[in-house]
Amino acid sequence: xxxxxxxxxxxxxxxxxxxxxxxxxxxxxxxxxxxxxxxxxxxxxxxxxxxxxxxxxxxxxxxxxxxxxxxxxxxxxxxxxxxxxxxxxxxxxxxxxxxxxxxxxxxxxxxxxxxxxxxxxxxxxxxxxxxxxxxxxxxxxxxxxxxxxxxxxxxxxxxxxxxxxxxxxxxxxxxxxxxxxxxxxxxxxxxxxxxxxxxxxxxxxxxxxxxxxxxxxxxxxxxxxxxxxxxxxxxx
Length: 236
Prior knowledge:
Layout: H1 2-8, H2 39-55, H3 59-63, H4 68-83, H5 86-89, H6 94-106, H7 109-115, H8 119-124, H9 132-137, E1 143-148, E2 151-158, E3 161-170, E4 173-176, H10 178-188, H11 200-216, H12 224-232
Antiparallel strand pairs: 1-2, 2-3, 3-4
């Protein structure tokens, strides 16, 4: 699941990026859809523009190619990483909970503050957030289906099945609908109400999950004491 999400969402359990990435070349401007283009052509053009921006690790360009609500969602995640105490943090939906914790493992309070206002742009420009190699491997959409005037569903070839990507029409054109995709992904995350993160067993389960995710990015495992501190808030 992680690989697909890094391509589609630019995010997954390990969407949280690092603040020390190098500057990267800007992506080419998004192509403007001609009036005579069909919806399918416009959606395909939107995907190609997003893919180009992802390959260039151009967070500013990517932010113009996704739905508006997802930008505010990422701002909320950064705010939660800065502010939420443990009792409020553990009450978040599982996906949000893990996103906040992973941000805290990779950012201190100062760098989280630096992300405020441009959270999506900053995280999308980081290779630990978006893996450009995945975009390179998937050059085009397989099919595009119009659901209604403002929503379309596209697929990418993923043997042995198709992976589905939603798109939404906003005032300035078709956008990759990351909000809809996040809802799909969140539905697949176990909603285990039996895990109590206020217990030692719950913290061990959480530590295992976080370290599994960090190992996929080649990061050092967290120690139990550090996790306890991060559950209370970001480091200064």
